[in-house]
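Database export, one record per block. Field names are fixed; values are copied verbatim from the stored entry.
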Amino acid sequence: MFTSLTFILEHSNNTIKKSSLDACVVAKQIAVQNNLTFNAVLIGNTGIDIIPLNKMGIDRLFHLVPKDYVEQTPFGARNGIIKVLADKQLNLIASAHTAFNSELAGYLSIAKDADIITNCFDVHINENSISASRHVFAGRFKETLQTSKSNVILTLRATKGEIPHYENKMQYEQHIIESSAEKCKIIETKHFDKIVDIADANILIVGGKGMQSAANFNLLEELASLLNASVGASRDVVDAGWRPQYEQVGQTGKTVSPAIYVACGVSGAVQHIAGMRNSRIIIAINKDETAPIFRVAHYGIIGDAIEVLPRLIKELRNNL
């Protein structure tokens, strides 16, 4: 039914996003399991660092460079990607499950008359159909969807893990494309050095209402600086105005899958767990030993985060 799998890469500041690389690992595994050629599509200028892609097991990289490059929106990126998919007869497409790619998938679906399965995992391909699962109702249930369409788009839920090193040589193709006339344009982008997308964090320190006040998040900032980590927050913390919305983890925030996830004073509502359950190692600090967060944690500390964190910080300062 399919002979190849094509992964759409996402970048920022001339660097492939970590969330995109994590999902690319999943896509490569699907390609290997089903004996598919593994392609990737990258749209952007020639200054993007593609060196990390050399070990991802990509057989062919299609680099689409607009003649008059401006920062891409999903609407603006669609025509170049649609053209290469049509020219190369590529009909199974995947990407990381992000806001950018979810919007882009809608445009590609219309152009290719394709079915979309979003935020999915556990993908199976057979002779006549493709199936994939995803969590629904805040992670309480898992549903499996199946399609027999000849064109399929998947947005993949990444699972954090080691990135394998594949030895095959990546074939690079650069294609100059016409810039799309956009109805919606990015007119200015401001980058703040201290703001890191929590979806790209390798270590994530997350605070909940158990931190008791906005001022106590200084403890999380201090711990994060020692571990080269990022700081996140639960929804109730964001709703209280203690932390900005871009730090929110959960069903209505961002889905994350860091190598280490430290939950401090987070109770672990199902909506929160739905956004972080794929973290590789989960450490929970909570004074309530019955808190749901302990059900998914690999390691737990029963204690008040306000009292535990200063002791933890002191030990790290003495031993790092």
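Remark 1: The radius of gyration is 21 Å.
Remark 2: Residues 18-33 form the longest helix (16 residues).
End of record.
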